[in-house]
Amino acid sequence: MTTCNPDVERPTVATIARPATVAVIGTGAIGQDLVSKISRSSALTCALVAGRNPESAGLRHAELLGCPTSAGGIEAVLSADRPFDVVFDATSAAAHREHWPRLEPLGSLVVDLTPSKVGAMVVPAVTGLDAGGSRNINLVSCGGQAGVPIARALATAFPVSYLEVVSTVASVVAGRATRLNLDEYVATTGQAVTAFTGVSDVKAILNISPAVPPAPFRTAVHALIPGADLTRVREVVESAAAEVRRFAPGYEILAASVTGDRVMISLHVIACSEVLPPYAGNLDLINSAAIMVAEQHATRLALSEAAL
Ligand SMILES: NC(=O)c1ccc[n+]([C@@H]2O[C@H](COP(=O)([O-])OP(=O)(O)OC[C@H]3O[C@@H](n4cnc5c(N)ncnc54)[C@H](OP(=O)(O)O)[C@@H]3O)[C@@H](O)[C@H]2O)c1
Question: What's 264's domain CATH number?
């Protein structure tokens, strides 16, 4: 079983002269963990957390961490004195589709945690952190962040004809917005699998488990591969998992099997965080990717300001 130390195992960024200013829209499961991670980053300053319910637990959480807050939603972001360097959208796919045309003129880097698929898709272990200069980065979904690296590794090494990515998240860490945009989750995760593997016959599934105690975040990748060799399959997926562990230390392959032409890989992501329960790897994985994208942008801004 993976053990995690949240402070020492993650990549660190060099101290930079001016941390990037960050706004978060959405104060639910994803938004609250993002705020915790921003407050621990030396490259980012939590400059605004915008919800829409003044009584929300997420706004109280942000206040306790010293972030300015507003219940004014996107309007609070748009009416700030200066544009934020980075805006995280942790609302819903439908809300993000409305937010983006209003955020775009600000020139901020927008990191979209919803499965809206408006922006350029980033899965760090596969794409790196750049998205061809796009100012709207889409992080696909938690299941996409977990499954795409494995699907991509299999499709690169073998002639894969079918891919299925099935994820399970605990109900207590899947907020209302996650449930509302379940159809977008399925569509966007499937499109990401196709985009990064070249395999057109794919299926994405999300289980929201009501189990008590809460189910850990798990993903199974099923592939149809004629003549796959188990030893080689293990090598390929362990190498892909090592790449993800560079920023999500709780990412671990649990099982790999080959039965005829059916290949099955099972993995889990344990949250490595002082504020998340271990089963919340779904939040930890996508939010760690989001923070890395923002920190790279902060470094780039600091370098270009230093060059002036
Ligand atoms: N939870 C996961 O495992 C997970 C993982 C990866 C990605 N995601 C994605 O992240 C997004 C958030 O998921 P979640 O689980 O954090 O849901 P959540 O707990 O319901 O959080 C969504 C938050 O956004 C707020 N919100 C919604 N529309 C808004 C708007 N137009 N303006 C301002 N605030 C708005 C909600 O406010 P109210 O409280 O007033 O409704 C709520 O605070 C979803 O798109 C989901 O698919 C979730």
Answer: 3.30.360.10
